Protein: GTPase Der
Amino acid sequence: MIVAIVGRPNVGKSTLFNRMVGGRAAIVDATEGTTRDRHYGKTDWNGREFTVIDTGGFTVNSEDIFEKEICRQVEIAIQEADVVVFMVDVEVGITDLDQAMANILRRVKKPVIMVVNKVDNSARNLHSFEFYGLGLGEPFTVSSMSGSGTGEVMDAIVEAL
Ligand code: GDP
Ligand code: MG
Structure:
């Protein structure tokens, strides 16, 4: 069972990934330091073991690469993952890249769990409502840094697997 974390750069994918896999070593599949690297880690929750993929690794700062990266991440998610975790960032709000990814993910025939990250306090919780606008249902709100809300996401992942 495989869960892929997708989302634009800096939303906090690696922070959540590290929290999920804990101290366990991740396997890195890097292709010559390009945008292709991804990390695989094993985790378990409520007695269910699964693999998490941290997609990402941006080295070139151009919109063109971003667009390609979006397609590639979602491709991985569709091909390899049983469940997709789509991460967005409450600090920044909805961006064009979030929209582009959501447009693709709305058509994916696999469970998509939208996670609003950086909800570090209750004031930020109010801002998370805007993400309903991405058309992917009710978002989970988490602070990957502190770990708050991440248990609920793990529950949802295991339920969807
Ligand atoms: P990625 O590019 O999506 O893998 O994002 P990273 O995990 O590298 O995180 C990007 C930045 O956001 C880092 O500076 C993190 O410390 C920060 N970050 C991650 N999670 C949180 C969070 O829950 N709250 C806050 N305030 N910052 C976070
Ligand atoms: Mg990362």
